[in-house]
């Protein structure tokens, strides 16, 4: 009967759910410890101007190395860091790292790149978030326009008016703002005219689909809309020459993806930038 069935189902699911919860709790504890022991790393993925393939910016991406040489994917540990609240501290450290790195780039005379940093909902919810960012920028004495914050539609949807206020304050300092993973959030488009944005990053699922008619329609609509709104567009996840060619044909000025470069540690990025300088 029905009662027995639901009882069976409950018995069946419970152990695996518990294992899952245990694994997550275990990961959060390890993440907290590894962060405290300075084991997390920030890697950088180039963002290029499509026409010239010149690196014009980089995206800072967290890496969590394991003792066996592997990495736990941010796709797995970022949600845990968000859920546990750890992301507030970790995210603040990523911004600090980005500022420090900009300073280091400048000291060796590298081109003045912009450094994009991902920001999570719990960070944005903190009242003192804008103040904190401003302080870090000031402490490192860097030009605020060199920093770009990448926010997602989920941040905007939480409280569009509050987000607009916070962004206006950040923009007053000169900090740049991009919408990340654009198009996957299913959120209302009306926020685009409310927010002081600089750039839209077309999500890689659309870029992946750019050889199909439906994918093209979506991409071209996004690019056209962005142009009319006066926003810049960056295509994420470019992996092939054909995708580069396609975006070159559109009014899309920048791209990021394995076709150009994968995320890499800062010292490798510095080598790449030095080579680029000696070509030009
Ligand atoms: P995201 O912000 O959209 O970052 C881009 C992701 O796409 C990165 O994955 C990057 O390695 C990957 N990617 C770039 N080009 C290609 C390509 O051509 N093909 C494919 N298949 N992938 C490409 P990653 O580093 O694994 O990060 C995943 C997500 O984790 C990020 O997505 C971001 O949402 C989050 N994340 C990473 N670092 C941070 C951080 O410091 N703070 C926060 N809040 N989130 C972060
Ligand atoms: Mg991002
Ligand atoms: Mg993205
Ligand atoms: Mg993302």
Automatic annotation (TrEMBL):
Q: Where is the EAL domain?
A: 24-277
Highest taxon above the source species: Bacteria
Recorded protein name is Signaling protein (CHEY,EAL,GGDEF domains)
Name its species: Idiomarina loihiensis (strain ATCC BAA-735 / DSM 15497 / L2-TR)
Q: Which residues of the full protein are shown?
A: 458 to 737 of 737
């Amino acid at each position: 009967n029905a009662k027995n069935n639901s009882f069976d189902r409950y018995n069946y699911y419970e152990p695996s759910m518990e294992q899952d919860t245990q694994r997550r709790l275990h990961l959060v504890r390890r993440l907290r410890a590894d962060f405290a022991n300075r084991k997390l790393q920030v890697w950088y993925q180039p963002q290029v101007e499509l026409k010239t393939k010149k690196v014009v910016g980089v995206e800072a991406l967290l890496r969590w190395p394991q003792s066996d040489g592997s990495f736990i994917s941010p796709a797995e540990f970022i949600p845990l860091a968000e859920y546990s609240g750890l992301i507030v501290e970790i995210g603040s450290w990523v911004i600090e790292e980005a500022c420090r790195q900009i300073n280091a780039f400048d000291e060796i005379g590298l081109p003045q790149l912009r450094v994009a940093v991902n920001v999570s909902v719990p960070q944005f919810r903190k009242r003192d978030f804008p103040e904190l960012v401003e302080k870090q920028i000031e402490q490192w004495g860097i030009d605020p326009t060199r920093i770009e914050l990448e926010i997602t539609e989920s941040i905007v949807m939480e409280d569009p008016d509050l987000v607009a206020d916070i962004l206006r304050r950040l923009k007053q300092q000169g900090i740049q703002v991009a919408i990340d993973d654009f198009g996957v959030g299913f959120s209302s488009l009306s926020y685009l005219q409310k927010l002081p944005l600089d750039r839209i990053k077309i999500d890689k699922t659309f870029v992946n689909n750019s050889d199909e008619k439906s994918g093209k329609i979506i991409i071209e609509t996004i690019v056209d809309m962005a142009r009319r709104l006066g926003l810049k567009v960056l295509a994420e996840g470019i992996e092939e020459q054909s995708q580069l060619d396609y975006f070159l044909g559109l009014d899309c000025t920048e791209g990021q993806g394995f076709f150009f470069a994968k995320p890499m540690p800062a010292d490798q990025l510095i080598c790449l930038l030095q080579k680029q300088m000696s070509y030009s």
